[in-house]
Amino acid sequence: MRFDRSSFRSVRRPSSRVTQGGLVAVSLGAVLLAPLAATGPAATAAPTISGAQSLTDTVSVSFESHKPSKTSDVHLLAWNDFHGNLEPAALNIYGKFAGGAPYLAKLVKERQKAYGRSEATVLAGDNIGASPLSNALVNEEPATIVSNLMKVDFSSVGNHEFDKGATELQRIQNGGCKPVVGCNGAPYAKAHGGTTKRYPGADFQYLSANVLDSKTKKPLFPAYGIKKLRTSSNKDVNVGFIGEVLRDTPTIVTPSGVAGLTFTDEAEAANKAVKDLAKRGVKIPVLVIHQGGFQSGTAALNGCAGNLTGSPIAAIADKLDPSIKIIISGHTHAEYRCTITTNGVTRLITSASSFGRILTDLTLKVNDRTGELASVDATNTIVENALNTPGPGVVRQPDPSKADPKVQAVVDQYVAASAPLGNKVVGKVQGDLTRTATGESTLGDVIADAQLVATSSATTGNAVVAFMNPGGIRADLLAASISSGGEAVGEVTYGEAFTVQPFGNSLVTKTMTGAQIRSLLEQQFAGCGGQTVGRTLQISASLKYEQSATALPASPSAADCAAQIGVISINGTAIDPAASYRVTMNNFLATGGDGFTVFNSGTDVLGGAQDIDSFVAYLTAAGATGVPVPALNRIVPKP
Fold this sequence. Notes:
Blueprint: E1 3-4, E2 9-10, E3 24-27, E4 31-34, E5 48-51, E6 60-62, E7 71-79, E8 92-93, E9 96-97, H1 101-115, E10 119-123, H2 133-136, H3 141-149, E11 154-156, H4 166-174, E12 188-189, E13 195-196, E14 205-207, E15 211-213, E16 224-230, E17 236-245, E18 261-263, H5 266-279, E19 284-290, H6 312-317, E20 326-329, E21 335-342, E22 345-352, E23 358-367, E24 373-382, H7 405-422, E25 425-428, H8 442-455, E26 465-468, E27 491-493, H9 494-500, E28 506-513, H10 514-522, E29 538-539, E30 543-547, H11 558-563, E31 565-570, E32 573-574, E33 580-586, H12 587-590, E34 603-610, H13 611-621, E35 635-637
Parallel strand pairs: 2-16, 7-10, 10-11, 11-14, 17-19, 19-20, 20-22, 26-33, 30-35
Antiparallel strand pairs: 1-2, 3-4, 3-6, 5-21, 6-24, 7-23, 8-9, 12-13, 15-18, 16-17, 21-22, 23-24, 25-27, 26-29, 28-33, 28-34, 30-31, 31-32
């Protein structure tokens, strides 16, 4: 794809046109009327959020208040949070084996062929990062190659796009060999045929309206992109895509990954971009944002169960310019298609789960006379990939007819390259090790124990306790999990271990006082020590502490936070606030990641091995007996 960098206009493929309307109608089987659109983006009353109640319901938002004019269609295809999942593995959703690049590509290409010049394809962030070994081993490049083959037009940046820093992300965009490592993924398939020995970069354009270079105050990537689409009645219309990531990215990414960057308010950046688009004659702005929400209660593929009230995306929508009527979201790995009515404006908002398991297809009806957006609807489709369905002990039977052969060949190339390492058995577990959304987890305990072992000797750090961030644990480690390596029940391959810890973080050991350790544990609670959300650090067996079962108030005082933590002991002895202890964490936490800023106060810093290496070594050291499932008794109720 080529871009006019002055306007960020795509010139690869054509398609359609749009604008802002008056009264809004929402079809959910029945038609509802919403108030007249507000004149500005200022937040007012809480949003009203609704959506389909069953798979057969239609979610269609109409923006024409007068007698409808003749319209014609353009289409948007979207997905999010692919995370380099080239292989289907055992991925599933709603009772179907789903996902995998070849299967997603087949469905995408079929839709693109059907829509011709009337479509654009966009991603809502996290296309790379936190990836399985087949993608991560080759510097996250394969996911971009297969995206090129799927003729993606634009992608918002996601928080995981910054895992390795802005310079590396610019290389992913622009191409070139990774320093030191080189182009170890060659030959690279090109979208229009043939291969190249040099990593070609992304044919699509990353967009980052709210990510600025801290010195120049300019967006790291273009704030928006424009694609000219041809409507079904052969009229041209420009659609503008504004790309953003959640403002809180610096709190969930290694600080070095976002060094030199400023992340601004999502709504303010989008509103600025939409004004620029209007000056360029674009009447249909679409927000593609790596931020979202969740359905509550029983989720539905095309539903909005329990709505998205209180979610980050609802708060952003509350402040958006009225001309932004379509939001393609991500980040939460959830699926939904909802309408959000706020400040008199109704918008359609979609999300496509994660790992390429769902494709969102949006149809925009454009007024042939004015080029304005008349209505929009969307459908989420499962990317099925098998002849059978998931179940206990069920092995997926691939359905080759649902796979794109060209993308399959690329996936096969990188799976084969990673197989010798990925299929190597490195240890054994006695039972399932799982992660949990909150609280202590068996897998978190084992990882923290592994990190303590790796840093407890006099030469590696003299550590007496280790902490692990729960967000860095990306998958459960199940004794009976099915792997392509054909290992026995309980055996763990390197690929499985890597899937659990894919970031390549290094271990860091620091000296902290007992008082700092107490402050750190208090900082796990929202509203305490600057923490914005509650997170439970996973801890080594050497550390035990008491935690109150009483919920904190919405705005806790320092005394409230202190009261959450009772007695703390290391190796059976209560800590001394004035004493010093050697403490291990990964480099993400070491510089205040996840809001745990107390780690920044540690001294006498010593670097260590990569976290995946310590984890694998711990598994190997357990021998034929295997790593036992630990009892969840390190965090105990406070009397």
